[in-house]
Amino acid sequence: xxxxxxxxxxxxxVADALMxxxxxxxxxxxxxxxxxxxxxxxxxxxxxxxPADGILVKIVAQSGETVLGEQLLALLEPGASSxxxxxxxxxxxxxTNPSGAQQSAKAEQPGTxxxxxxxxxxxxxxxxxxxxxxxxxxxxATVRGSGRDGRITKADVLDHIFDSAAPxxxxxxxxxxAESVPRAKSQSASQKLIPAAGDSIMPEGVPEGSRPETRExxxxxxxxxxxxxxxxxxxxxxxxxxxxxxxQPVVALREKYKEAFEKxxxxxxxxxxxxxxxxxxxxQRFPLVNACIDGTDIVRHHYHDIGIAVSSPRGLxxxxxxxxxxxxxxxxxxxxxxxxxxxxxxxxxVDELSGGTFTITNGGVFGSLLSTPIVNPPQSAxxxxxAIQQRPVAEKGEVVIRPMMYLALSYDHRIIDGKEAVQFxxxxxxxxxxxxxxxxxx
Length: 442
Known about the structure:
alpha+beta
């Protein structure tokens, strides 16, 4: 009985999704829970696993297509429980030479190096790529993949062969094949033309003095970020107020207890947990900063779901810490640690990125000294943290050096008055400069 593979159910706030590269092709054998393809929404990338062992007999929706929730993607014929072992050169010889049957049998024994190599490369290659590697005697472990998640394409194999010092004997035929292989339209193309820090700004193989340009589509996440930022600028009366905080008490507290904290809770004691706790106190004292506008109504949230801006390879994402008023510093740090790791892997769920009543963003990790963060609609405010710098400040009539940080609160002036915004920021400052207040609730 054929099994239908469909797009996962999409949340109400997500209209459709974009098909990314298939990790398997029609005719490939798959095992249960193996990832077949990924679909990108405007918030996260969702993985579509195989529901059972079998053969992928038909692909209905191709890479690059826009699909809806529960739309048919492919058909799976259940039954096969494992992938067939690819022929080695000894097996191929045995088929035409009976005297080589003993070598063939040896190559098929489980646990051999040939089988181990196949299993380790299957996740990153297609059958055509593995077949080409066998024909040319190429070790796929030496090939750098340009496809999504490091997947090795046929073009990568051909490029590697002709970049090597000793091309194979059939190089002429392979050269013709290489010219006919379309290069993957993946992020690798832009990566070759967008240099990393310290790299030459000219693409490889382009003569000096030329003026190359590339064009690539924005990801759905980047499109959503752009749309929401423009929406925020156009629909809200944004204003930013600034202050600075002496981080010496928090720095000293962190230095004193960070080892004991990590040993007990399994997470580093960072600065973010102090800012979350201080923000909750300030939100409780100035609840309009935690509210939002809906038409002509003011919606007051009697809970505190704080979004923490996290950088990921796909762009900035804002997972939500739920009910922060009841969270300890350890709870906050553990949750942020989990979010950060899954953000880098692209494995945050839609629910973890939805909602939120207030946001904290830390540009200081990238070296930002001062900025005006943009409010994340429909929220009404966002707190910006910045780099800690040793600066001279006046204390009791004397100039001393202290670790100082600039704070910025951007807010929607339609709902939050300047007085409330300033007092909110001063409350955060007071909590951080005297952390005992967080414990004593004063």
